[in-house]
Specification:
This protein has a single domain, classed as 3-Layer(aba) Sandwich (Rossmann fold). By secondary structure, it is α/β, with parallel strands linked by helices. It is built from 8 helices and 11 strands. Strands 5-2-1-6-7-11-10 form a 7-stranded mixed sheet, with helices on both faces. Helix 1 runs parallel beside helix 8.
């Protein structure tokens, strides 16, 4: 299986959450599957991982995402759903700040057109879409009209916003998976509820295992 992974920067406060991303990539690799990382291009505001504040610095999403992918990454406009078996989005606030505007606009959020196109083109080919942590908010915005089910953990502002958009929201524990087999959407809460890296990996592993089971 060949899975495209959309990254959103480097670091949980303003990019892709490293532990979630690596857990996802490891879960894919352990099955002998292949992954290819993609990221949008464009500057974003850097958030300090020490104090949580912006300090005026700006960086490029693709350049920063390349740190996680060890340089093996492609600009998102090069993604073609026809070339991959599934699409995955790890969490981290980059999904809420760089892939979408959820961090700033809440339920009135928008999604980057290139990210929306990647998700929609994959979905319309009946190929699986996976997401972790806050990234299911992006799916909720793009796919709400199709009645997809997803999880953002328990009862929290993100879950309520996704429900208001029209997505069917399921409460899940950190290692649990919301597997919407009708729509081929797989989500897990990760650090929306988790506190330990072992929990994050277990959730990613279970999510990928659910995909593997359904693709047999």
């Amino acid at each position: 299986m060949n899975i495209a992974v959309i990254l959103s920067g480097c670091g949980n406060r303003d990019g892709s959450e490293l532990q979630e991303t690596l857990s996802l990539l490891l879960a894919i690799d352990r099955r002998g599957w292949h992954y290819q990382c993609f990221a949008p291009e464009g500057d974003y505001a850097v958030v300090s991982h020490l104090d949580g504040n912006e300090h005026g610095d700006r960086r490029d999403i693709l350049v920063e995402s390349a740190r996680i992918a060890r340089g093996d990454i492609k600009p998102l406009p090069l993604f073609r759903a026809e070339d991959y078996d599934a699409l995955a989005l790890p969490g981290g606030m980059g999904a809420a700040r760089n892939l979408s505007t959820y961090a700033f606009d809440g339920g009135a959020m928008t999604v980057r057109p290139d990210v929306e196109e990647a998700i929609l083109s994959t979905y319309k080919l009946h190929k699986p879409v996976l997401a972790m942590c806050i990234a299911p908010m992006v799916l909720a915005k793009v796919l709400w009209a199709y009645g997809v089910s997803l999880t953002l953990g328990g009862d929290n502002p993100a879950a309520r916003a996704a429900a208001q958009m029209g997505a069917k929201v399921q409460h899940c524990g950190v290692t649990e998976v919301c597997a919407d087999r009708e729509h081929r959407v797989y989500t897990t809460p990760a650090y929306m509820v988790g506190t330990r890296i072992s929990e994050i990996f277990a959730g990613a592993e279970n999510m990928v295992a659910s995909l593997e089971k359904d693709c047999r």
